[in-house]
Amino acid sequence: MRQRIKDPVLVADGVAVTATTGNVKVAKQKKQPLLRVVKKDRPELLYRLFVRVCAIGFALLIMLLYLKGVTGYSFLEIWQYMFYGAFGTEYSINRWLRDMCMLLLIAVALAPVFKMKFWNIGAQGQVLVGAILTATIMHFASDSMSYSANMVVFLILAVLAGGIWAAIPAFFRVKLKANETLFTLMMNYIAIQLTLCCVDEWKGSNVSLGLLNPDTQAGYVSELFGNPYGAVILIAAIAVFCMSVYLNKTKHGFEISVVGDSPNTARYAGMNTFKIVMRTAFISGAICGLVGMLYVSCVDHTLSSTIGGNYGFTAIIVAWAAKFNPVIMVLISMAIVFFERGAAAVNDTTSALNSYTAYVIVAIFLIFIIGCEFFVNYKIVYNEKVVAAYKKFHDKVEAKAPWLTAACAWCAAAIRKFSMAIEKALAYVEDKFKVGASRVARAAFDCIVDAVSKCVFRIRLWRAERKRKSVGYIRHSEENTEAIDGENGEEQND
Q: Taking the model in full, what pTM does it have?
């Protein structure tokens, strides 16, 4: 029996011919799409900045057109109202700083777990459980404790509550492969119902819970730097600095990156993935619990299920848009709260808007910020037919107007050279900045070590001098005692 030999031959026009000894099969190739999306290599810094600046510009334009169309104000009037609403008075500046720092703290809390690809959607619930325990202590025991004891108890309980609330879905994710997105999302609703239960129990027959301890103000965080929200600002600054160092300069930050990129690689390298996931989730929830404590003891001084607004969900977009960089989160948080406060100020000047205008403005800004990442990380590749049609069109234009194609080519070359020069200059400045910063940091460290050494030396010298004086005093006392005893003896002999 003869064996059939297949000899496929590809023919043009998208037809494949397969020849055998017995028959001929014709199979049509699949049509290729006109365009496809391909991931870019890491783009140049100038290009990334250009795309993001364009996205912010388009977002501002759409927001202004929306407000102008609804209110009838000019662009200048809208900007005036927005800036006045955010920075017009000392009260508005404090509100802007407060909201920006609270949003920033939640975003910073989400940065490590998101970098580990643990999608924690339960920040709002973790904030609420921290607020519940803080409000419980404030409601029942704050009057009987000192200010320092209140702050310590608030801090410990809120941090533990938020950390444990985040560690529960992390445990089930690692051990039982549960979906952490749904798990953390559902835990938000449990926290909301617990909050409503506490509020309903504590308010009794009143319409609302109201302020906690309004007369004694026990458990209220005192002013810092002359600002009622000074503690919030200080904690946010410390959190940004510590999280930047933790993610970029520590072993734990490296382990988070490895687990996020490939858990199998982390296991092969000998890393304890269970420990890393649990630790990172606990840290994230602990910071969210701290935010809940600040809302109750420093910002609102009450407990409600809507505490913090939607910042627990808005912070997710802030962390994602900033690529988990705490420093970039500062800028995005500042912009979001500015638009929110500014839109609220525009809303107060007209009856054409309502309280949801701020959410519309913030949504427009976030859509453009997130959407521009597509143009930063991906490119569109066209089909051969599209490329051939473009080449044919280019040839016709070049035949009829060669000066136009030459001008376009010259402009493209000039832009390319300019971008390369800017990129080189930025790289040079970045290198010099790193070298200078390292020198400054080393010099500052040397100064600190020198100052500490001098302090230690002075303390030792002071202690030695004090010891010498005490020994001299004792000897002098003994001599005086002996002299007195001698005199007493002589008197007795006389």
A: 0.73
Kindly list the distances between the CA atom of residue 110 and the CA atoms of 113, 156, 168, 284, 330, in Å, as whole numbers in the listed order: 6, 20, 16, 6, 14
Q: How many residues does the chain have?
A: 494
| pLDDT surpassing 60 at residue 113 | yes
Between residues 299 and 359, which one has the greater pLDDT?
Answer: 299
- Per-residue model confidence as pLDDT tens digits over 288-322: 999 999 999 988 888 888 887 778 888 888 888 88
**pLDDT confidence of 158, banded at 50, 70, 90?**
very high
Q: What is the mean pLDDT of residues 138-151?
A: 86
Band of residue 410 on the pLDDT scale cut at 50, 70, 90: confident
